[in-house]
């Protein structure tokens, strides 16, 4: 199996990994030769070899359960295993979306309470749990913005303002909703440039979408002024709440003047992020927008919980009720941490990011030298001046057994190195990361070649990223030796 360079090719003609019982029926005729597929080549290995092969492959995996995973903007945090256990209880997993409301009262109660908890945490009036990813929540929020203006007969508002540090999904969601997009620049401090907003905020603008904290890992202290300006001119303020991990239990986004926010339960609330899902991107809205939330919402009267559709709902944005398993984990996380625990989580997330900032700022350029929130954005431009790119630094970290941070995002920081340590990492782990980064900074001066050719200790060396995406080689191919 040498085509993927990871393990030796152990396939040999004639080896077999399973024993079939003797035939006790007449053998079936094979189809005519012309219809037999020749390209279906399978490796021929024994059972032990097969087990060892897959076990060895599984050990190449790197995840938050095996080591530090400091991807900025992604909140790859440790998710307590007990929440997985709770979500796998058969009462939750065996439930069917076509069941009657009467027979699913426990699930509806959980959804109803989760809606209320998320509204409380964000300082909003209502929540829809239906959207199934952060970007899906963005799209939902923007559809609500559109419906809100249409409902008021305000047909001129066809534009969404975003910032130049926005996540790429923000413009994509706006365009999918049929909006035009304009970008407000950031100022030298990493805040939104108020003067530019002042000149751009007109009667064509439906909403400003502002990630908070920003993807630079910063709290924009002008937020109340921003909100005032947007609202005074008839617009709405929408939040990308993917960075909620910095605010949990401490700052209510609604109190900052936002009209709605989408959350990423698969980042902040105990569902592993990455690996393609399932995710959940609930939208929490203020009173002016709750009527437009997608259906169904869960409510209760004196006797029972039930699904309802808000008066001016934008309708359905997905099948059934959203990703229920993710909701169970979020509910369990909120209940097991409690209000104080949520506060402590965000406090530690912010403390850890600031610790890294202070420890590394003498070695890496810090474009915005101020207290950061849950993530810190460095630039590798000092190293770049010596011919070492941020990609080289990231690849070299692999040799130290560490997952690299996010690189080259946000786009407004050249050679960006965006690190989010999260709340659960110990001082020991952070120090190991700091030491590796310091060592790499030294190597960049003394031995840049070792960085250009990194990684050296990993099962595969530096890959052609573009080819790996465009032509992924994910399966076994018969090599000459095994044929
Ligand atoms: C700031 C920000 N907004 C939106 C998203 C999109 O979330 P999702 O990947 O769940 O669609 C991300 C994803 O990492 C993000 O970092």
Give the topology.
Elements: H1 47-58, H2 81-87, H3 90-93, H4 105-122, E1 126-128, H5 134-151, E2 159-163, H6 169-176, E3 180-184, H7 194-200, E4 205-211, H8 223-232, E5 236-241, E6 260-263, H9 265-268, E7 283-285, H10 287-290, E8 297-300, E9 305-308, H11 324-360, E10 376-379, H12 381-384, H13 390-399, E11 406-407, E12 416-419, H14 427-446, H15 448-452, H16 465-470
Parallel strand pairs: 2-3, 2-4, 4-5, 5-6
Antiparallel strand pairs: 1-7, 6-7, 8-9, 10-12, 11-12
Helix pairs in contact: 2-11, 4-11, 5-6, 11-14
Bound molecules: pyridoxal-5'-phosphate (PLP).
Protein architecture, described:
The N and C termini lie close together (11 Å). The strands form 3 sheets. The protein has a 7-stranded mixed sheet, sandwiched between helices. Strands 10-12-11 form a 3-stranded antiparallel sheet, covered by helices on one side. With 483 residues, the chain is of the alpha/beta class. The chain has 2 domains: 81-336, Type I PLP-dependent aspartate aminotransferase-like (Major domain) (Aspartate Aminotransferase, domain 2, 3-Layer(aba) Sandwich), CATH 3.40.640; 347-470, Aspartate Aminotransferase, domain 1, CATH 3.90.1150.10. Helix 2 packs antiparallel against helix 11 (324-360), helix 4 runs parallel beside helix 11 (324-360) and helix 5 (134-151) crosses helix 6. The radius of gyration is 26 Å and the shape is globular. The chain has 16 helices and 12 strands. The structure holds pyridoxal-5'-phosphate. Pyridoxal-5'-phosphate binds next to helix 5.
